[in-house]
Amino acid sequence: MAAKKSSDSRKARIEEMRRAERSRERRNRILTIGASVVIVAGLVVGGTFLIRSQSDSSDASSDAKATSGKFVTGDDGVKTWKGELTQNHVTKTVKYPATPPVGGDHDPAWQNCNGDVYDKAIRNENAVHSMEHGAVWVTYNDKASDADVKALAEKVKKTPYTLMSPVEDQKDPIMLSAWGAQRTVTSASDPNLDKFFETYVQGKQTPEPGAACTNGVS
């Protein structure tokens, strides 16, 4: 009974976040349609140069910032990142200290994470942005069984604020990652999978709760 109440509570929380997301998207569309911007060619060139210069400067130091900290494993088997996880938008590849990463500087565009399943590898930088929005990233390598991969995909497809993709160089067959947290599960039927979803899908660790998980990179 308690598990059902917990599941209902999570579903209600996610639905509330999705309503907020839809409302935000409608406002953004109205602002976009109503806006009319005229840019002088010289300003475009100058602005582009300035942006690139600032981006290069930011990117040059982002790797060092992102590596500040370490994992601490709790009694429940969840590894929590203790240290700084920066949230800068960068355009270069980021060298993350963990595989898969659990936070740090990331691409300005998030990976679609509304129960999206990808059969090919995705960019870490986009997935990290998704986790910043409260998504759980389910990853697997070639040691995971076909049956587990299929069962995981079905679960992800039914769960908003989740995404799934292969990560061949991760150390365990099946791993779950959220912003600042990560754990390994033994199979798609491992009860720790549901526990992780319950805790970290739009969980308290989310830097930007309710932010979009659609209209990103697919």
TrEMBL record:
It holds the Pfam family DUF3105. The chain crosses the membrane at residues 30-51. Keywords: Membrane, Transmembrane, Transmembrane helix. Residues 1-24 are annotated as: Disordered. This is DUF3105 domain-containing protein. It comes from Streptomyces phyllanthi.
